[in-house]
Amino acid sequence: MPDNTPPHGLPADVLRVDEGLVCGDDQPYFPAQLGEPTFAADDEDGRRYYTVTPRFRRVVTEWIAITVEATSDHLRFRWDGDDLIVTDDDALHDNTDPTSGPALERLRPDADNRYAFPTWLWHEHDATTEHLDDTAHAALVVLATDDPADNDTVIRYLTENTYPTPDPQTLRNIRAQHRTLTATPTTPADTTEPEETRDE
User: Fold this and answer.
1) Cys-Cys link to 148, which of 17, 19, 97, 142 (CB 3.0-4.6 A)?
2) What Cα–Cα distance (Å) separates residue 198 from each residue in 74, 98, 144, 176?
């Protein structure tokens, strides 16, 4: 009899076969493809530590950005087409010039249309010790699709598993903003006609 248990040890409807669960500190789990381990450091006992950079589908990346923006006092996000613009109000472009403004980072999708947050620390889900409650299960089933329509299920999951606890309406408002604002934060959207196309 074949073993139908998914390799990640979670119910088959929660994750795609090629994905696992990762989370940031005080954040909920999100599904991601896990890349190849990269050596990070040795400790004093000679143990070697490796890091894995998770890669997220677009819809998951959207919810990560919404969650972080709702709970951070210095990170903001905006979509510019397929690129995600991360604005860090605590980090300056040039540390020697306090008037240089916030740091901007442009995250582009890779060849598989997945996004990575290369400087962020992620933790893998330990399926042997960590239980998924009904809310988490339902939300992860929604996130297993590329176009989740059940926003309320995901918002309930984020509200119950994020610290500090975000306000559900704030999550909805940020999602609406991200879906309507696509200009980069460095230049406001120009609603005027270009000079050469105006009628005299």
Assistant:
1) 142
2) 40, 40, 47, 32
Tokens of 125: 């889900």
Class of residue 155 by CB neighbours under 10 A (exposed 0-12, middle 13-18, buried 19+): buried
Q: What is the pTM of this model?
A: 0.79
Question: In angstroms, rounded to a whole number, what is the distance separating the alpha carbons of residues 163 and 64?
Answer: 13
Asked if 64 and 56 touch (Cβ cutoff 8 Å), the reply is: yes
Residue 130 neighbours by CB under 8 Å, 6+ apart: none
Q: In 10 A of CB 123, how many CB atoms?
A: 12
Helices and strands counted in the chain (H then E): 4, 10
So what's the pLDDT on residue 197? 37
pLDDT band at 103 (very low <50, low <70, confident <90, very high): confident
* Strand 102-107 relative to strand 48-51, pairing: unpaired
Backbone angles phi, psi at 170, to 5 degrees: -60, -40
